[in-house]
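Dear Dr. H.,

I hope your travels went smoothly. While you were away I took the liberty of generating a structure for the chain from your last submission, since the lab meeting agenda had it listed for discussion. I wanted you to have the full record in hand beforehand rather than looking at slides cold. The sequence, exactly as received, is reproduced here:
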Amino acid sequence: MKRREEVQQGGGEQAIQKQVAMGKLTARERIIKLLDEGSFNEYDMFVEHEARDFGMDRKKLHGDGVITGTGTIGGRPVCIYAQDFTVAGGSLGFMHARKITKIMDHSLKMRMPLIGINDSGGARIQEGVNSLAGYGEIFFRNTLASGVIPQISVILGPCAGGAVYSPALTDFVFVVDSISKMFITGPEVIKTVLGEDISMEELGGARVHSEITGNAHFFSESEDECFDQIKALLGYLPWSNTDVPARKEKLEPLKEFDISKIVPTDKRQPYDVRHVIRAITDGSDFFEIQESWAANIVIGFGTLNGRTVGFVANQPLVLAGVLDVDSSDKAGRFIRYCDAFNIPIVTLVDLPGYLPVVDQEHAGVIRHGAKVLYAYSEATVPKITLILRKAYGGGYIAMNSRHLRADFVFAWPDAEVAVMGPEGAANIIFRKEIATAEDPDQMRAQKVQEYKEKFANPYVAAAKGYIDSVIEPWETRKSLLHALEVSGEKSVGMPMKKHGIPPF
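The corresponding predicted structure, in token form, is as follows:
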């Protein structure tokens, strides 16, 4: 059909060439690349805008600047929309928003994941408050769908002003280097108000949101790489909160990841906890989330006997794996996501506690740190904890301890569970003996050793029933598989309430 062909050209050849010159695919190309071949069914292709002021009545905007429809990824149905920058800069007007909210309603009703590709100059000024109303309707539906269906935002162009709050309300945000831009106020406004010169890339580019703000969950070098990441992520997720993730092939971990050789016995020596995860998971696969932000904690998905599991692990390579403001936010949100979508949580513990610095105290580490406690306490999915080396103070409690209703708690034989490390504890408990000794250094070393023998081991906690089993490293995968198997039909009752009040 001639009409169909015209609409599919979007803003026309000249606008398409400008899009290509910016190193970007068109909206339609993006959808076709992301979905299974031949699976896309477009809806509302012939929708037109309703603006009449400022000469808009004489303008034709094909599809009103957004493409919507359904298709499949890996043979499973998804809803999708992609803003078309070639049509009025992808600006959001009344009908543009209505198309998006219609596909959002469809995704919620049909219990399918929603993928939104953002590439827009923002609200269509010519439509005034109708544009703002459109954003509000989108935000409301993002909130309704939260915890019900997976929501994925892909930033493949500008996303500014009020538009950024929709991605912020979704589950996962994908960005591409040199293409993605997200900010509330642009460089020009900042220069006008504050007199500061800053580029769009420095203000809200892909690396900024992947490494500094934590607003993005996945970073890629190209759009094609980004689409591969989305497909990989969806392979671990259920299609709704009443579903469970599809089972994957059961594989043994690769032999190159020998769990008994990864963790040094010297508790001051760092190691990469991701190697421990890969020594546990099927095929040694681990799909990490927010890799470059708050790297002192590691989160992501893997499978055990084909079943999706969420991993939360302290990273000794970065700040000794301590909890701080950002890592608490990162872990807390991920824990709640796993709980909402019926994904068991495995927690690997090796930390000295919360980060003890003035800046963290003033940044609200008390409130942020409480998010981890809240998330674990609230979660009702199977929760399994393994203490690798050290678990001190509040960090021990926060990292899914028995006291937060972990279903299974395991520890390796060299693990230390204590209020604080042996050196610090000895300096406090035996302060007088050390100060008055003929050789204070020798006395300190003696008292540190005494403390280690008495408290710095897993058996004291195990004697109280706080640890279920002290296991050898080589027993780890077997123990985790058993714990998952027996907790598969877990059911717990919670107090009746409208909702809790998390420490946002």
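Two observations you may find useful: The longest strand covers residues 383-392. The first helix runs from residue 2 to 8.

With kind regards,
E. W.
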